[in-house]
Q: What sequence folds into this?
């Protein structure tokens, strides 16, 4: 009898400890991010996230990332961009055109992301779809709906910024933790897909096709070149930070894989991600909520993002990957 009571009370104590542990909420891999609003933290973004170079395609130079969407997410990426193009059987993700690199159906990619979100209920995820063939909100919204990801979609109070964003903790507790940006989509025509947000009604971006490590800039390039006015009107900065190489004797640009270690590292040399972020924070007097890098595991770029978010050494639940180009290409 004594031992039964003792066993029961030990069991209760163990269960109680377990439940208090799970009650301690973690948002996007860090407890401290739960109280941050969506626009007041920096998201690590994988540029052209759908265009993967790996052993299955002989490390095609048209690929911008080494790992697919779910692996990127498990690593800590929280914004994934891709280009949507019309192909024979629907909307595909293709790099520049579908003959160069066809990563398959947008609906399949969104389904992979939705499945990852099903398994990771404490994470807020964003996508940025480049609407290359100007599909309307009905077409794109139908594809999002078919993937099931719309159930998680957050709809802000207006379809044009600035708006007040909730904290990650609120988005997670309401299970509205998916944000869908589209570049571009007429903001007046998304009644049946109000979760599709026209990027340039909320966000401005710096220059993207940079081919010289000394030429990264924080100046707004799209939709306006008036950085000061963009900030004053509450537009959110997106910091592109990836380097291209011009293919010899042509205007064709491909991701500069040989410079990726330098491009994505925090500090110390020309063109580093962290130094560029520091410059942009000074220029904007705020941190950029969004970043986009190629080869997102390299650098590691995530160290800079953790530093900006003041969660260095306090993160949990990520799957490590090789952080140098050589390691990524051999694994
Ligand atoms: C972000 O939050 C900090 C406090 O954590 C505050 O000082 C800062 O003004 C906020 N910035 C923006 C752009 O919301
Ligand atoms: C993504 O890559 C991982 C390995 O990195 C693999 O296990 C998974 O099946 C891939 N997912 C898809 C949808 O191909
Ligand atoms: C959206 O585009 C589709 C395909 O091009 C077209 O059939 C449909 O009429 C368009 N809908 C609206 C509301 O414009
Ligand atoms: C997407 O699904 C929502 C919710 O079921 C529905 O209201 C909306 O009309 C759908 N939109 C499209 C474009 O299919």
A:
């Amino acid at each position: 009898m004594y031992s039964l009571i003792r066993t029961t009370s030990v069991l209760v104590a163990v269960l109680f400890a377990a439940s208090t542990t799970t009650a301690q909420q973690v948002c996007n891999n860090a407890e401290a991010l739960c109280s941050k609003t969506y626009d007041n933290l920096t998201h690590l973004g994988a540029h052209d996230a759908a265009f993967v170079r790996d052993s299955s395609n002989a490390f095609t130079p048209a690929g911008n990332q080494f790992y697919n969407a779910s692996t990127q997410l498990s690593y800590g990426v929280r914004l994934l961009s891709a280009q949507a193009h019309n192909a024979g059987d629907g909307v595909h993700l293709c790099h520049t055109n579908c003959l160069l690199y066809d990563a398959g159906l947008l609906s399949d990619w969104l389904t992979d992301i939705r499945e990852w979100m099903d398994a990771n209920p404490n994470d807020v995820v964003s996508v940025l779809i480049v609407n290359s063939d100007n599909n309307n909100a009905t077409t794109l919204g139908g594809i999002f709906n078919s993937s099931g990801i719309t159930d998680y979609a957050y709809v802000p109070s207006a379809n044009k910024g600035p708006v007040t964003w909730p904290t990650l903790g609120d988005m997670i507790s309401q299970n509205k933790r998916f944000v869908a940006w589209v570049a571009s989509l007429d903001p007046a025509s998304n009644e049946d897909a109000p979760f599709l947000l026209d990027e340039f009604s909320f966000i401005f971006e710096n220059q993207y096709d940079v081919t010289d490590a000394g030429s990264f800039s924080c100046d707004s390039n799209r939709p306006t070149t008036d950085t000061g006015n963009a900030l004053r009107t509450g537009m959110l900065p997106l910091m592109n930070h990836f380097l291209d190489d011009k293919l010899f004797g042509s205007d064709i640009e491909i991701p500069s894989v040989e410079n990726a270690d330098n491009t994505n590292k925090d500090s110390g040399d020309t063109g580093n991600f962290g130094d560029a972020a520091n410059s942009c924070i000074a220029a904007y007097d705020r941190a950029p909520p969004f970043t986009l890098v190629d080869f997102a595991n390299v650098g590691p770029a995530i160290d800079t993002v953790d530093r900006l978010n003041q969660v260095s050494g306090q993160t949990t639940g990520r799957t490590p990957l090789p952080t140098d180009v050589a390691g990524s290409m051999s694994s």
Summary: Residues 94 and 102 are 4 Å apart (CA to CA). The pocket of 2-acetamido-2-deoxy-beta-D-glucopyranose (ligand 2) is lined by residues 67-68, 70-71, 112 (CB under 6 Å). The radius of gyration is 21 Å.
